[in-house]
Each structure stands twice: as C-alpha cells, then as structure tokens.
Design a protein that fits this description.
With about 550 residues, this protein is an alpha/beta fold. Helix content is about 35%, strand content about 15%. Strands 5-8-7-6-9-1-10-17-2-18 form a ten-stranded mixed sheet, with helices on both faces. It has a four-stranded antiparallel sheet with strand order 12-13-15-14, with helices on both faces. It binds zinc ion (ZN). The site of zinc ion has 5 residues, from helix 12.
Amino acid sequence: MKTWIYIFLLFSLRPLFAQEPDAPKLIVGIVVDQMRDEYLQRFRDKFVEDGFRRLMDEGFRFKEMHFNYVPTYTGPGHASIYTGTTPAVHGIVGNHWVQAADRKVIYCVDDEQVKTLGVAGKSGKKSPGQLLSTTLSDQLKLAGQFKPRVLSVSLKDRAAILPGGFFADWAFWLDKQSGKMISSSFYGHSLPAWVDDFNRQGRARQWLAHPWETLLPLKSYAESYADDNPYEQLFPGEEHPVFPHDLPAIRQKMGLELLYHTPFGNDFLAEFAKAAIEGEDLGNHPGTSDMLMISFSSTDVVGHRYGPQSVEVEDTYLRLDRTLSALFRYLDEKIGKGRYLLFLTSDHGVAEVPAFIKDKKGAAGYFNSDSLFQGLKARLFELFHDSLAIAAYNHQIYFNPEKMPPMYEAKKAIYEAVKDYYLQQEGVARVYTEYDMAACGSGDAYCDELSRGFLPARSGEVLILLKPGWLSHEMRGSSHGSPYNYDTHVPFLLYGWHIPKGANSERVFINDVAPTICELLGIDLPSGNTGKGLTNKF
Ligand SMILES: [Zn+2]
C-alpha cells in the first residue's frame, strides 16, 4: 500500500519539478560562401585553436559532404542547405532563371510587391516568394508556436532571405551603395532600432579605411601560388594583383561595394551578427530555442576574383578563422558553452582557374557561352526558319513556347539539333533535354544530378554539361556551378549542444543538413525534405 502512495506522489508532483525542456538556447547556422572542404586541411596549421579547429577538434566533422545536383550556385545552395531538398523541389533552380509564364528573366529573391526598408531604392524589394518548401527555421517556428526568434543575416540578399524561409522574423543584407544593412516590408514595417543604431556607426566605411595587408608575413603563405601571377583580377588602378591592396584608393573608384571583395566584409557581418544577438536578445527567451543564420559572402567574391590557390583566398580564410574564434568566444560568454548548437557548411565550392591548369598542362578550358548561344540561334534559324531559342542561363537553353511545335516528335527534332550543335563544341561533355530529365535514374549519375536541379516551369529545355575543369568565365579568376568534386565537396561541421566529438568519412549530401538538425531538435522536417538525418553516424 505504502509503495502505491509513493508512486502516486512521484507522478503527481513530477510536473512541479519538471526541468526546462532539454533544448539549445540558440541554434547558429553558418554558411561560408564558396568554401571547399579542402581548405580545412590546407590551412589547418595556420588556424588558431578555437576557430575552425574548435569545430574540427571538439565537434563532429562530416568529411565527405557533397552537393548532389546541378547547378551549384549561391541561391540554390542556401535553399538546399536549409530546406533539406534540391532545386527540383525547393524551386530555386539558379540565381536567375527564365520564368515560364512570360519568359522573363527573374532573380531568385526579387519581389515587386514589397518595399525596401532602410534606404531609398530597389535593393530591398526582395522576399522568399519564389521558395516552394519550408526551411529548417520555418519548422522551428511551427514547432514552437512561432515563439522562437529567427534571424538571418548576410551581405548577399539571397544568402540571407532563402535560409530564413517564410517565417523568419527578419532577414538583413547589405545595401552596396550606402553600406547599410537593410531589409524588406515582407518582414516588418520599419527596421528595428538596433539596426538603425548599427547603421549609424558607418562600419562599412571604417573597415575600408586601411590597406589590405596579409595577416601573416607574405613569405609564409606556402599553401598558395605566388602573389604576383597572371590568374587574378586587378582592382581598378592596380597594375599587379599583389599585396598590399590600397583599399582607401580603390574605394574611391568602386564605392562601398568594395567591402564584398575583401575579408573585412566578414568582420563587418560578424559585428552585425553580434548586434543582432544583443538587439533581439537571442538565446534568452525562456522555453524556446532561437535561431541565427549567418552567411559569409566575402569568401565567394574574393574566390571569384583570385581563385582557390591565391594568397588572397588563404588570407581571407585565416582572417575568417580569427573572426569565428572571437564569435565562438562571444557565444560561450553570452549563451553559454554547451547551450548553443552550431553548424557550419557551404553553398558550393569552386573550380581551379582554368588558365592556371592549362599552363600546368592539365585538362581545363574556357567555354564562351554567349557567343556559342548566338551561333545556336543562327543554326536553328537555318534549319527551322524561325527564332526558337530565346535565352541561355545556367548552361540551359530556353525556348519560346509560342514558336515551338506542340507535338513531341517535332519538338524532339529541334532539341536533337541543339544537342548536335553543342556536342560539336569544345568543352562539352554531354547534352540532355527535358525529355531526358524525366527518364533519369537509370545509372547516369550526371543525368540524376541535373534532374535534381531541374524544375520544368523554371529550367531550360536543353541542359549542357561541360567537361571537368571547364568554365564560362573571363581568363582571370574562377567560378563554380558544376557537378564535379571541386564544386560539390564542402565542409559540414557541428558543435555544441548534444554534439559528440568525432568524424565520419561516408559520402553524405547537402540535403541531409536540415534533417540532421531537425533530428537533433526533435522537430518535423521541412515540407519538401528529401534528405536523411545523420545523427546515427555520430
Ligand atoms: Zn559565387
């Protein structure tokens, strides 16, 4: 009898002693734009102990995280990381694409219906309106009855907006002209006071007030090719692409947009991220997990300008490492070690500079997308006496539906002519049509990767796959977009709340990131999710 009373008391009193739900106070998602996984290894010895190395040594590292679709660009990358699916489902098939309805070129976060907040002009007329799936943070909002505070910040509008999904309280990005962080009326009526305060400090200007010198002595950058070489772009007024880069002088010519092209854009954003944590009191709301998404864009812009073997890229990562170290120490103090869950990944990698690889007698080349498209139009006119193809975007050919024959056979004949034309061009590996996309899955891995990036209403009807190492780009600098290792292999590091120390070398995919975080948090998956949680691999 006595035992029963104890059991009764235990259960009836339990709610009174219930602890706060076991959940992190803050989830921090970090995307480093254009970060290859190999940078973690190549620059490791120059990293400080508690930047990237804290995540590698004390957190969990997936060593073979890959993108599994084409095209590997910023808009699709950010959407895929946070929706747990690929462009075929979340709909962000490129940074730009041609809209089926009117065949107009649209930008992935443009929205004419909303207003800019923070400055005059159109730089804030943006929203996630083109996104077709909920995101990780949307699911956090739904699971918490909209109580969690969710913010997303980046210099690039698309890198702030797409991660934030439909329900983020705010997404903020940089207005290039004024150097101010801005937003759109999609999120609210006016900028929060803490954003105005931040903007009043004029930090963009201050970060550009000094020349860009290397962080360490130049001769110690043995992981990169020589500073002076023919593979890097020049800033206006420069004769050689070498340190020090005279930022105050270059700013006179480029304006505050220059911030994107230097590692100091990352420092500027980290300051803004801290202001966001303070301003919104993130991580300090009883009973909920808040979320902050940070996407560092300068790594991408510097990478495009100088290529992955440059001293400038190495220096940008060494500086970002120190910036992250300071951010982690701030989070330890503000939120508490073990009380925040942090992950870091990237939206795509980057190719080697083709001219550099060619000079070293490797396989690479330049594909002149624009002039070849002009040639295609002429060829189609010759064969079919009509202007059928209207645009080439993301290595996809879009046709004018009004000029195209409705019947399968007639359409197929046109597509075959396009295929023939491109297969004769140097640098082309394969060409697929929209009909091929529907039949993928039979063992052609590239067909599968293209089909995971293909959505009929937004993608072109013929898709061109270049050979490895080939780019449609000017002769200096580099780019990305392919299904090849250099573009797909990115870091995936987890650290903090409920994350064990360890590493795993199985090949995993970018749409596994969001379901892994959902699994850890015990919340439902994003609506379009096609990935799988990876916590069983810890
Ligand atoms: Zn890029």
